[in-house]
């Protein structure tokens, strides 16, 4: 199977310095080995070489004026990776760390994630190295308007439909949407994650977190277990983490942590959800303020992190939900989780576990749900928002949530069945990659060379 190796080597030369993208591509391609060995059509149609190459990458300058009147400049990105299954679909990330490699890895993951949902959506991603931290509301608005002034010509409800990701929530989607409408004169479903009173879907905000918990539920059910009474670790304090915590409480579990870029919050009584929501959704302040309301909790700052990992993963628990960002969970963290008795891990974030740490979980045979399967509930519900927009309807929360639960159960089933088909029933990484790839690759073959 030298062409897997050759393709990866080729990427390192043609797209230098994109380590996150190589990591994502290597994981997918390595998992495809047994499929490529048993079915030569993918090789005959050069699918591997084609699927790692984005259909289109857009990079642009974003100029905006800060509150002091100074002109600021950021990089803007939109990667339209694969449209074999539908319009490009995927979020926008506004974070200081964003670069071409990060957007490319996210776009690549999105292809397979979206395919796993079974819905007609292709893969895309975008964002900017704009850092929303400490920016005023007026600055956020001006940045969003400037970003959309460039992006609007490349997107549309049947071509490319962006949404949120880190640093982009309903507020930013609102400013982006307003600018799109102003420039095009069209009121249409070009973005998802909109507020409920102007085209958003009930349940979208909650969907990624709820979906990650539903995925864990499915993994545990196959092992004859459930979440009731289980102590859970959650990292992150954004939208995904908050609604993971909410769903865990609804199912009788006890989430005891969350975290931000400065450290980990541990509340052994269980994270107080209302306080967390107020801090993050209303006040938009740091997590340390939580201690004013709950003095019995403790905040472990980054300086307290163990040498090779993060304090959040050293707290004894049964189930873990990494919901912060890529590569937040190292080998040392994985070893600590396993020796503390964690039996299930469901990824709310995209690629939060390093490649070697994934191997630790697979070797230990814990129930491990990779992000492209476990966090697909967000984008799946975005597609439900698109369906509501194009039919000018608004569905009930019950209808959306029932669909979400069914989609997460289907994703789990198709990952588990595919893993079993290839002789590795415990390996949902293999199952997710092969199941997602097959859907996209078959469509690419049927649509000819394009
Ligand atoms: N950013 C989310 C993801 O990583 C959601 C994308 C969307 O809703 O389009 O899947």
Structural features:
450 residues, alpha/beta, Rossmann fold, 2 domains, 15% strand, binds glutamic acid
Specify the number of helices: 17
How far apart, in Å, are the first and last alpha carbons?
25 Å
Query: What's the average pLDDT?
Result: 97
Overall tally of structural domains: 2
The SSE order reads HHHHEEEHEHEHHEHEEEHHEEHEHEHHHH
Name of the CATH first level of the largest domain: Alpha Beta
Proportion of residues in β-strands: 5-15%
Given helix and strand content, the structural type is alpha/beta
List cofactors, ions and other ligands: glutamic acid
Largest sheet: 5 strands, mixed
Level-2 CATH architecture of the largest domain = 3-Layer(aba) Sandwich
Q: What is the approximate shape?
A: globular
CATH topology label of the largest domain: Rossmann fold
CATH superfamily of the largest domain: Leucine Dehydrogenase, chain A, domain 1
Write the layout of secondary structure elements.
Blueprint: H1 2-14, H2 19-38, H3 41-44, H4 47-51, E1 56-65, E2 71-82, E3 88-94, H5 100-116, E4 122-128, H6 137-151, E5 160-163, H7 170-184, H8 204-222, E6 231-234, H9 239-250, E7 254-255, E8 257-260, E9 263-266, H10 273-283, H11 290-293, E10 298-301, E11 319-321, H12 331-339, E12 344-346, H13 355-363, E13 367-369, H14 371-374, H15 377-390, H16 397-421, H17 428-446
Parallel strand pairs: 3-4, 3-5, 6-7, 6-11, 11-12, 12-13
Antiparallel strand pairs: 1-2, 2-4, 8-9, 9-10
The structure holds glutamic acid.
């Amino acid at each position: 199977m030298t062409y897997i190796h050759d393709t990866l080597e080729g990427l390192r030369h043609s797209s230098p310095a994109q380590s996150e993208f190589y990591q994502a591509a290597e994981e997918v391609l390595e998992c495809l080995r047994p499929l490529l060995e048993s079915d030569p059509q993918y090789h005959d149609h050069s699918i591997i070489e084609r699927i790692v190459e984005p259909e289109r990458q857009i990079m642009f300058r974003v100029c905006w004026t800060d509150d002091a009147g100074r002109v600021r400049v950021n990089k803007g990105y939109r990667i339209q990776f694969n449209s074999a299954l539908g319009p490009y679909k995927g979020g926008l990330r506004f974070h200081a760390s964003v670069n071409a490699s990060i957007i490319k890895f996210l776009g690549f993951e999105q292809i397979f994630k979206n395919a796993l949902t079974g819905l007609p959506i292709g893969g895309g991603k975008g964002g900017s190295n704009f850092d929303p931290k400490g920016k005023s509301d007026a600055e956020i608005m001006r940045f969003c308007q400037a970003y959309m002034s460039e992006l609007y010509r490349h997107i549309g409800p049947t071509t490319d439909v962006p949404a949120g990701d880190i640093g982009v929530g309903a507020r930013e989607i609102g400013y982006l949407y307003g600018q799109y409408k102003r420039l095009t004169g069209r009121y249409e479903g070009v973005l998802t994650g909109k507020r409920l009173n102007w085209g958003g879907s009930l349940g979208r905000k909650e969907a990624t977190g709820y979906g990650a918990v539903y995925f864990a539920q499915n993994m545990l059910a196959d092992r004859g277990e459930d979440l009731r009474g289980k102590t859970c670790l959650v990292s992150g304090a954004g939208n995904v983490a908050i609604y993971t915590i909410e769903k865990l409480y609804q199912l009788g579990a006890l989430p005891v942590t969350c975290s931000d870029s400065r450290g980990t919050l541990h509340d052994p009584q269980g994270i107080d959800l209302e306080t967390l929501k107020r801090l993050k959704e209303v006040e938009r302040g740091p997590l340390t303020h939580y201690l004013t309301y709950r003095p019995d909790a403790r905040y472990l700052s980054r300086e307290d992190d163990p040498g090779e990992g993060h304090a959040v993963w050293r707290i004894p628990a049964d189930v873990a939900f990494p919901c912060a960002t890529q590569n937040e969970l190292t080998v040392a963290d994985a070893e600590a989780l396993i020796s503390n008795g964690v039996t299930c891990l469901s990824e709310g974030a995209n690629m939060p576990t390093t490649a070697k740490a994934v191997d630790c979980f697979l070797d230990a045979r814990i129930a491990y749900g990779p992000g492209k399967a476990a966090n697909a509930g967000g984008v799946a519900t975005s597609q439900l928002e698109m369906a509501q927009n194009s039919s000018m309807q608004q569905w009930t929360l019950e209808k959306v949530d029932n669909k979400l639960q069914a989609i997460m159960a289907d994703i789990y089933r198709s990952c588990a069945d595919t893993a079993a088909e290839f002789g590795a029933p415990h390996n949902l990484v293999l199952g997710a990659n092969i199941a997602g790839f097959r859907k996209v690759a078959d469509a690419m073959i049927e649509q000819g060379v394009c």
